[in-house]
Amino acid sequence: MKSPFITLSAVAVTLLLVGWLDYVTGPELGFFVFYFLPVSIAAWYSGRRLAVLSSLVATLVWFFVQGANGLVYSSGLIKYWNGAVRFVAFLIIGLTVSRSRRSRLSRRSIRLARR
Fold first, then answer.
1. Using an 8 Å Cβ cutoff, are 90 and 35 in contact?
2. I want to staple 61 with a disulfide (CB 3.0 to 4.6 A). Which of 1, 19, 78, 95 is the partner?
3. In Å, how far are 52, 75, 83, 102, 111 from 13, measured between CA atoms?
4. How far apart are CA 67 and CA 69, in angstroms?
5. Tens-digit pLDDT profile for the chain (115 aa)?
């Protein structure tokens, strides 16, 4: 995906699909690991900035889905704690994928320079 528009579109469509599937499956099924996919796409094809942004958007989509499903917590703080934990998880995945991509490109450049 060379085009930033294509990358952004892929991330947006994937986030919407994952959010919809999360909503349809209901609050009883843990679905949050599937949000790693759009975050990873963003990180791989666009780098750290979009990885951070997509992590934030994925967290907001998760918040929206939880509210739409009518999930009620015993304390209002629990929802925010869970959201913060998910944001950190998305961020770790995004930054790790981004770093892995940069490392791979760096190794490829070194190999090409040796030739």
1. yes
2. 19
3. 17, 32, 21, 25, 36
4. 5
5. 668 899 999 999 999 999 999 999 998 888 899 999 999 999 999 999 999 999 999 999 999 999 999 888 899 899 999 999 999 999 999 999 999 988 887 777 677 677 6
CB of 60 closer than 8 Å to CB of 86: no
Tokens encoding 46: 């666009």
- Quote the tokens at residue 92: 């770790």
Q: What is the DSSP string of the chain?
A: ---HHHHHHHHHHHHHHHHHHHHHH-TTS--GGGGHHHHHHHHHHH-HHHHHHHHHHHHHHHHHHHHHTT---SSHHHHHHHHHHHHHHHHHHHHHHHHHHHHHHHHHHHHHHH-
Q: Write the CA distances from 10 to 1, 51, 84, 107, integer angstroms.
A: 9, 13, 24, 27
- Pair of tokens at residue 11: 């991330």
- State the residue range of the domain holding 59: 4-114
